UniProtKB/TrEMBL annotation:
This is L-ribulose-5-phosphate 4-epimerase. One of its GO terms (molecular function) is metal ion binding. InterPro entries: Aldolase_class_II_sugar_metab, Aldolase_II/adducin_N, Aldolase_II/adducin_N_sf. The keyword Zinc applies. It is an enzyme of class 5 (isomerase). Its cofactor is Zn(2+). PANTHER family: FUCULOSE PHOSPHATE ALDOLASE, L-RIBULOSE-5-PHOSPHATE 4-EPIMERASE SGBE. GO terms for biological process: pentose catabolic process. Its EC number is 5.1.3.4. Belongs to the aldolase class II family. AraD/FucA subfamily. It catalyses: L-ribulose 5-phosphate = D-xylulose 5-phosphate. Residues 7-197 form the Class II aldolase/adducin N-terminal domain. It comes from Fibrella rubiginis. NCBIfam families: PRK08193.1.
Length: 232
């Protein structure tokens, strides 16, 4: 009944260990079907090697299980709130990839140092603040989603221009038009995080990329007159 959505979700989840973005049962990917108002998400705590497409749990935007026999990811309420609030995203990925987590644990935005970063977004990668005790003791995973959404609102960032965030002391969340694109963004974020870390090791006074070069790289891929790639 939800076979296509479960297949999409399964294939995207299986990319995480292949790309070296997760160990064991870390992380999760979901894929949404906007027409039916549901999303598929990885079940909680099942090793990737044991997952099957039919294990993907179907939930609605209130994080209620609609179909499936397994318990959904512990992060389901975060995914649900992001889908509910940002009605134009098609997939979400959460990992515990090493360099992105290191920046999150340090509580730092990732500065835009070079063209690799600018090819994907013309903003620093934001780090949303750690949750308050009340949030942690309340509806924790729902509040995690709120913290991400509020960070974008507070910084006047568009979730279409920046498809990635760090959550302080936790780790990265990424999204995109599809589940596959959200995984791509998770891999890009990890690479950007690693490059920025190494850059500061070599020169702690490294300056942000100058705006002309930043805009050239961002606009040639994402602008109205973009000319990167084959145009399809
Ligand atoms: O953030 C966490 C744990 O802190 C989770 O993302 C786990 O890494 C995966 O949990 P499940 O999706 O298997 O419940």
């Amino acid at each position: 009944m939800y076979t296509t959505l479960q297949d999409e979700c399964y294939e995207a989840n299986m990319q995480l260990p292949k790309l070296g973005l997760v160990l064991f049962t870390f992380g999760n990917v979901s894929a949404v079907d906007r027409g039916r108002g549901v999303f598929a998400i990885k079940p909680s705590g099942v090793p990737y090697a044991l997952l099957k497409p039919s294990d993907m749990v179907i939930c609605d935007y209130e994080a209620r299980v609609v179909a499936g026999t397994l318990r959904p990811s512990s992060d389901t309420k975060t995914h649900a709130l992001l889908y509910k609030t940002w009605s134009d995203i098609g997939g979400i990925t959460h990992t515990h990839s090493t360099y992105a987590v290191a920046w999150a644990q340090a509580g730092l935005d990732i500065p835009l140092f070079g063209t690799t970063h600018a090819d994907h977004t013309h903003h620093d990668i934001p780090c949303a603040p750690v949750l308050t005790d009340a949030m942690i003791q309340g509806d924790y995973e729902h509040e995690t989603g709120n913290q991400i959404i509020n960070a974008f609102r507070d910084k006047s960032l568009s979730h279409k221009e920046v498809e990635m965030v760090l959550l302080q002391n936790h780790g990265p969340f990424t999204w995109g038009d599809t589940a596959e694109k959200s995984v791509y963004n998770a891999a890009v974020l990890e690479e950007i995080a690693r490059m920025a870390h190494l850059t500061l090791q070599l020169n702690a006074d490294t300056q942000r990329l100058k705006d002309t070069l930043c805009q050239k790289h961002y606009q040639r891929k994402h602008g109205t007159d973009a000319y990167y790639g084959q145009g399809c």
